[in-house]
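Researcher: Quick sanity check before group meeting.
Model: Go ahead. Protein one:
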Amino acid sequence: MDAVDALNEIAFWLERGLAPTFKIQAFRKAAGIIGALDPEEVAARARNGRLKSMKGIGDRTFEVIRQAVDGGVPDYLEDLRQRGQQPLASGGAELRSALRGDLHSHSDWSDGGSPIGLMADAARTLGRDYLALTDHSPNLKIANGLSAERLREQLDVVADINADGGDFRLLAGIEVDILEDGTLVQSPEMLDRLDIVVASVHSKLRMDAGPMTRRMVAAVASPHVDVLGHCTGRLLTGRGRPESEFDDDVVIEACKQFDTAMEVNCRPERLDPPKRILTKAAAAGLHFAISTDAHATEQLEWQPYGTDRAAACGVTGDRVINAMGAGELLEWAGSHPTP
């Protein structure tokens, strides 16, 4: 098989299986190195061993390349494929099968790693009916958030992708930042043009519980907001980050009153909200969005991490907005009550 394809596929399976980032990057880097060479030169260097002396080619990546240019599927890739046939999480199969789309994803227009078209193609390949493109708003400069002008340009790109008239639909959206006073970092005019708005706290996460509660309730109450994203802001890996403090009973009641969905964030380093909040929200009858928060095509497969936890906490398919068809979803998104 093509050696570049083999290396990239290995990176895909490693990322899917939550391997360390350095390991994933090693295969992507090797793919980039040999991708810049003539295939015949790669084959020759692999067979005489000279490829192994190139910077960025290690023992494992060299062996993968050598086996690929010899015409076979590399042993390491075959092993990963076999392991990849197992589900990412054991629970929530019924809930997972009910999902029709994904309502939180990022492209290379903000802090994602894949172009918009590739994100859409990957979602289509995975059998999704729709994918919401929700790049960051302008206040999040570290994530290259979109100004109103760049968002308008992105809407044209989304329209072009949808112009083929196929069954799949790319939804225009945003992950809009919630400021300290609860206001949203994008104009109402632009938010009105979007299909899906996810509102999230990304700054001042250590506010006192009272102001943080008021901040979140103000955002949830906005008729523009469809989904409250990763509500506690916690991070579980690396150095980690503790949960933001707020009155979850008040926030849950606000979500219920204004029919704003609570996101079940599937990113392995987030898995937000914690089960105690998710169980309470399910008992209150909230709507939910089980979304990957994918920043690359490989991460669009992460929904099982959310459906597993959601099912265990009592979430049922009839309360999940991305189990709706696209038409029903957009009708729901346009019907939020005003404060």
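Researcher: Fine. The other one?
Model: Protein two, sequence then structure:
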Amino acid sequence: MTATDSPAIKIEHLTKHYDSKHGIDDINLEVARGEVFGFLGPNGAGKSTTINTVLDLLKPDKGTITLLGLDHHKNVKEVHKRLGYLSGDMETDPSLTGKQYLKYVSHLRGGIDQKIIDDLVHRLKSDITTKIRHLSRGNRQKIGLIAALMHDPDILMLDEPTSGLDPLIQAEFNAIIREHKAKGKTTFISSHVLSEVQSVCDRVGFIKDGKLIRVSTLKSLMDQTSRNVTVHFKDTVPRDQVAALEGVSRLKHEDGSLMFTFGGDINQLMKLLAAHPIDNIQIAEPDLEELFMNYYRTEDHDV
């Protein structure tokens, strides 16, 4: 495999322990070039430790990491030139304005076309004239995102990137990530906010207590997640038939309607319902939030 054919991110047996209860343990993961990957887990699960170790900001106890086919430690300068990074809580000189900070980052990057910076400022509606110490968390995040994006990196590593952003700016952020993907570039988004990844990610990984417990495509996860169904019948309500269908749970019968959770074959459900006159049917699309909570309510999972 050549360097250009290699995964954007390859992590093998990555382990970093702080004490007996914290850190990450034997993380194995590949993220393809051009992929948007969501790294999910509650606060303290090991997301930031994984990112900081991948970025060579922390030394692992064990394991290997390659980014764009390069050893992340031996080639750290070359790798960092091709990365864009936003930390979970951006720290910089609070006495600088956003404009001064972005000028400083541009200088470190060897000079960035001002038009590119201006375009990102406009798209994210960023206040760059105020000193950073006076900005809200959301406005600091915008400055950090512009700094991470300005040099058009091959890999974006983003830790809780939309924290504090309003919905319109989140939508613009999603559009920027899709454009980044369309150019064949990779984004790794660490988050505990499910809506943040559900709209842009190709695959997601769940981390719990420092262990990667599941990696899957969003489609596969959604196919396995139950839907909430409400059916209003014109006359006879086939309660017993619906109750007997595989995948039906939490069934309720009220005023000519059935409300239930369905995790079975949707075609079998529609076939059954088609035999009965219906006034209305509502099938709520599965939410990653529900799946996420199911994983964290359960103690043990196989990856």
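Researcher: One line on it for the slide.
Model: The domain at 9-82+153-222 is CATH 3.40.50.300 (Rossmann fold).
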